[in-house]
Each structure stands twice: as structure tokens, then as C-alpha cells.
């Protein structure tokens, strides 16, 4: 029969929030699969984030929470087994750099403002960022996930090499609701919903994995991937 292991907790500084992690390990025969679901902290104030060079105070708090989860999970796992880490990591774009870019899109006389829960950007920005052709432009501001992967790689006792598949779609956070019930939605539709303007857009929901998980996905022996490294440039992440 399959063997299961569960472990989870709120983060130590979560206070009244629900932010935390859940670890699930499943052993079937000789195969062990590890899954980590994370919900990291959000940016509480757009203005603060836009005034701070990366990493912002919010990115640092997420990195600390990410490390806390790994410190709890890795001692009870084998890093050579497939591991998938996923969920609302709340990874935000480099808001300071993005805010500067938004200014370049403003026409003469247009004002660009940012408040705690409002981004006053020109319509040209909101139209551009939801197009697939603009993905390379905005991926250059997507620095935080690489920072989290570096946290995992530099753990002193259990270094963990992680990567994700190439990102080839526009940011998914935060969009206006479609108003269509889930059961009636056409998930193959290419209609692009507008972004809400109370937050900077970003790729917040992520799936990252270790070399053994990549080998499993690719249908190859895990030994093929054990020496793999993760890299990052403006357009892709790969093992």
C-alpha cells in the first residue's frame, strides 16, 4: 500500500494570516514523490515596494519564509527524490525598475502615480503587459524567483537545486474577474482579461522542481539530471 507523509505549518511570523506551507510525500513501491505547497506573503504597500531597490522588504520576507519551510522539510526528505514546489509564491516584479519603465510609456502630460493599493499607469502599459509579445520585456523585472532558488541552492546542510519551465505567457496576477461561472468558462479562449489596477502585475503562482522531478517529467533516469544546474536570463529558466 502507498505510504504517505504530511507536514505543514503557518510561518513563525504569520501572526493572524494564513500564510504557511504544506508538505506531502507519497511513496508507491520504490518511487517517492514530494510536493510542497507554499503561500508566501504579499506586497502590502505598492508605494513602499516601488521605492525600494530589489530585493524589497517584502521580497526579503518571502525569502525568509521560503527558507523556513525548506529548513523544516528537507531534513525529512531525500533531495534525490523528485520534489515539486508550487503555489502562490507571491513573487512580484522588481517594482522600482518596473515603475521607471512605466514612466517611459507615459505621453507628455500623463502622470504616473503609485499609492498603497493603486497603480496609476497609462493605458498603454496595461495594454502592453498583457500581450505575449511583451513577455521578454517584463521578464527582465522578474528577479524574485531566481532569488528564492538561490536561497535553496545555498542551504548549508541540504542544498537544493531548483528550476522552472520557460515562462512564455503574460503575468497572470492580478486580473479582473470574468463574471462567468467556472463551470461555464472556456479555458481554451484567447480572450485576455484586463488587469486590476490596485497592484503591480506579476507572475505570482509558480511551479519549481528539482533535477529528479525534471527527469521524471521527461521520462528519463534521474541520474541524467543529478548534475544539472539552474540558470536565469531575461527570457527563460532551465536545467
Structure in words:
By secondary structure, this protein is α+β, with helices and mostly antiparallel strands. 27% of the residues lie in helices and 20% in strands. The chain contains seven helices and nine strands. It has helices at 46-51, 57-73, 95-105, 123-129, 135-139, 144-153, 211-218; strands at residues 3-10, 20-28, 31-39, 83-88, 113-115, 118-120, 205-209, 231-232, 237-238. Strands 1-2-3-4-7 form a five-stranded mixed beta sheet. The chain has a two-stranded antiparallel sheet with strand order 5-6. A two-stranded antiparallel ribbon has the order 8-9. α2 (57-73) packs parallel to α6.
List the helices and strands and how they pair.
Layout: E1 3-10, E2 20-28, E3 31-39, H1 46-51, H2 57-73, E4 83-88, H3 95-105, E5 113-115, E6 118-120, H4 123-129, H5 135-139, H6 144-153, E7 205-209, H7 211-218, E8 231-232, E9 237-238
Parallel strand pairs: 3-4
Antiparallel strand pairs: 1-2, 2-3, 4-7, 5-6, 8-9
Helix content percent band: 25-40%
What multimeric state do the chains show? single chain
Number of helices: 7
Q: What is the number of strand segments?
A: 9
Principal-axes geometry comes out as globular
Gap from first CA to last CA? 33 Å
Give a short account of the largest sheet: 5 strands, mixed
Percentage beta strand: 15-25%
CA gyration radius, whole angstroms: 19 Å
Low-confidence stretches: 222-239
Order of helices and strands: EEEHHEHEEHHHEHEE
Query: Helices and strands: which structural class?
Result: alpha+beta
